[in-house]
Design a protein that fits this description.
five-stranded antiparallel beta sheet, 12 strands, single chain, alpha+beta, four-stranded antiparallel beta sheet
Length: 170
């Protein structure tokens, strides 16, 4: 009888631990942010929307590289706090190198840096943009402009705003 009780208690504990692990893992994402709508920040020009299966979710937006007055746009703010890892989707039609700008807004300190991604390489994959050293944080934002990136060819190629995703630290 004691053996049956021990087995039953062990099974209940194993079930609770497994369920908790699954819930914590799912609570951390990934969460997806669409390129529609984008918020204008600076510069001149408006992204053109293209509907194609080459983009994540069937559509994305682009602007041609600009060396005179490049524009900058922001995706929607993150919905959840404690943003940890983030990724940008490289559409199959990607052409240019792009410089993403990440900002984490938090309690006491903000993370802020640039990450260059060659959108012409590894089409159809998620480019890892980094992680936040500052936890807890309140929210994050991702920005991108159509300026030319030093060290890469600049000749009027398309810079794409496509979906991005992030995870959170529970």
């Amino acid at each position: 009888m004691k053996t049956i009780k021990r087995v039953a208690v062990s099974l209940v504990i194993a079930f609770v631990v497994t369920l908790t692990t699954i819930l914590v893992a799912r609570a951390g994402g990934p969460y997806y942010v669409s390129d529609n709508p984008l918020s204008y920040l600076s510069g001149s020009g408006t992204p053109t929307t293209v509907s194609t299966s080459s983009c994540y979710g069937g559509s994305c937006q682009y602007m041609y590289q600009d060396t005179v007055n490049p524009a900058s746009y922001r995706w929607a703010y993150t919905t959840y706090s404690n943003v940890y890892d983030w990724y940008a989707y490289r559409p199959y039609v990607g052409e240019a190198a792009a410089k993403y700008w990440w900002l984490t807004h938090g309690q006491g300190a903000n993370d802020n840096w640039f990450v260059t991604v060659d959108q012409s390489a590894n089409h159809g994959t998620w480019a890892y943009l980094g992680y936040s050293d500052y936890l807890p944080n309140t929210y994050g934002e991702l920005r991108l402009g159509n300026q030319c990136v030093s060290g890469y060819w600049c000749g009027g190629l398309r810079v794409y705003w496509d979906d991005w995703k992030y995870t959170t630290s529970p």
